Hints:
Mean pLDDT: 97
Organism: Ectorhizobium quercum
Strand content: 25-35%
Strand order of the largest sheet: 2-3-4-1-13-16-15-14
Number of helices: 5
Shape: globular
Low-confidence stretches: none
Structural class: alpha+beta
Domain VOC: 7-132, 153-271
Distance between the termini: 48 Å
Protein name: VOC family protein
CATH class: Alpha Beta
Largest sheet: 8 strands, mixed
Order of helices and strands: EHEEEEHEEEEHEEEEHEEEH
Helix content: 10-25%
Oligomer: single chain
Pfam families: Glyoxalase
Amino acid sequence: MLTEIKGLHHVTSMAGDARANNRFFTKTLGLRRVKQTVNFDAPDVYHLYYGDETGTPGSVMTYFPFPDIARGRPGAGEVGTTLFSVPEGSLGYWRERLETEGVPGLSEADAFGGRRLFFTGPDGDTFALAEVAGDTRLGWTGNGVDGDHAIRGFQGVSLRLRDAGATADLLEYMGYERVDSRDGVARFVLPGGNGADLVEIETLPGAEMARLGGGSVHHVAFAVENRQAQLAVRKALTDTGYQVTPVIDRDYFWAIYFRTPGGVLFEVSTNEPGFARDEDTAHLGEALQLPRQHAHLRPHLEKNLQPLED
């Protein structure tokens, strides 16, 4: 069993309009934009990062906004719901805020003894705010949400799979423990994790496979402290039979990727070096940062990328 995994690192999704995406996560949800850069493989497209003050692993939602992307088709083999942690007693505040902002898909439900407020993002993404007792992480309060209600980071993710068996085994190998199962949903928690330490698996045997597009989660990343821990995880996964990529430098973390038995793309990312490596913490996300290999494209990108602010 692996002991290096600390919980989630980030969740990366697909979007259409970059400005609408930025407005939703900063103005509506009150998160901080901690980095604006570009897709390593498609530099004409932004890679936007939102989270807490410093982009702490376990708080960071990231997006690739492709202007002409088709809407994704929900189904099996993907992350179904991304769960954010909020303080106990704050769902009333959030329901009123989201209603005022015209956010669709609002509904409340109990899940494993806790309350959740579900809502839909600008591209049809499915999110939920979950009241979590004892989450001591500090939320970002610079965008109009006070500290008593601010999002603390992720609680976790919920996967939709046709068959949960092999992915459940993988999660347990990664250090997660199965703690409950209700109504076709199995709940896994990482003991001693970083707060973003929940994964649920919803089993849908007859579901159509998902189609990647706007509103789809591209991958979910798990955190390790450093490159040494990452290499240990990579070797263990490879020895177990998984096809794992080489280590890739993503500027703000190092990453490896592998496809799970249920079809979801997993990443394992380092907590180092972080988002302050090329910007002062006080000014994170304010200026366009480019990977070295795309630095020569700056004049073109600054002219053609959609402005993020209204």
